[in-house]
Amino acid sequence: MFSVKSALPRLPLPSLARQLADDRRGVAAIVTAVALVVLMGFCGLAVDVGMWEVNQRAIQGAADQSALAGAAAYRNAGETAALGSSTTAQNAAYATALRSGYPASAITVAAYNNGSTCTNNGCLKVSISQQQPRYFTALFLSTGPTAAGSAVSTCSGCGNGAFTTGSNGGNPCVMALDSSGKGVITASGTPTMSLNMCNLYNNSPQTNATILNGGAIVQGCSATNSCGSQAFLAQPNTPSGNIDVPVVNNASPAPDPYAGLTPPTPVSPCTATLPANPVPSGTYCGGNKFQNKTITFATGAVIIITGGMDLHSGSTSLTGTGVMIYVVSDGSNSEASTINATTTINISAPTTGQYAGVTLWFDGASPVSYSGSNGSSFKGAIYAPSADVTYTGNAASASTCTRLVAASVSLAGTATAMFDNSGCPALAGPSLASSGGGSTPYTGSPILVQ
Asked: Are residue 189 and residue 310 in the same domain, yes or no?
């Protein structure tokens, strides 16, 4: 008769224990089963965490859009009370957040004050928070995390409220305004951009917006003295190459200091033949009409030139006090403006009136090439808000208080472009505060300030 007892090997108990311990059959299956449980847990965690991150970004985007919608509704309604206290602004912000799919209980809209940049209910803050669902992580988390986002907006004309832009260390002397373009490029050769008591601003957030190729350099008074100058770049990274002034990355786009100017109105048809010196205010045909001539403009004249200004050859001399030259182009290369190194410009900008501080205004997207010469004594701003400007200055020039505000800026060759703004008058229109503190009201379109 068969029995379990008779089927077992007749071994002492210690020997049997050793035999069982040494037996490896089935171990892989057990380890695999345990590992699969752990791996499934990590996979589940990755899925949930990825979902939470996507939701976090969606919440932040909804908060941004809601805050901007509130500021835009405020402006469109023409209200005069403080933005943060405006029922119109708050309702528009709430409605935008609700349309984004968030419940009312998850949304908070209120006036925002921080005692410095936002005061007197001049800013509107939208906050959205939402508890995140748990799928795989429900195995080891009792509650899901809370994703939250907030945004603060302001606008032009915020009534009793105000938003102020803090001092960035000095007046702007080189600004690239195009927030979607290439920004500031110093390329080819060994150009030097030298800043004295003024700043470089680049509104483009692209990582390659500021490029210093080869021996190009951005410096203060010298490579070892920044002279109170800084570079404020919207891009997230510090440019490679030689940049010897303090750099602030992820800077908020700087406002166009001349955005509020009203352009002069050209008269049609333009005057084809220049009158005798001094040339009075008027509308003159451009192209090469000014080339290879000695011209003196009447004091305080506003000179309108149509079709671009071509001074690419010969020796041209332009002289005038309190003069503003307004050059109109159609955006094509055929109406590009070129001022060569043999052109001497002894012109100072108006010191009063709406064009105070502006000497050359290029209206239109046709490219501009400006080359300062040793004999020039140029004083004022070059303003080309829609154009790409290639600038070549010279250290030996007597030019002072020179500023360059353009869609994008390129330096080339071996020249040193000097921007000395020490002791210069304030910019026309809204401007950033001088070095050392203070602030000025923001007067632009609705923006996010936090």
From this structure: yes
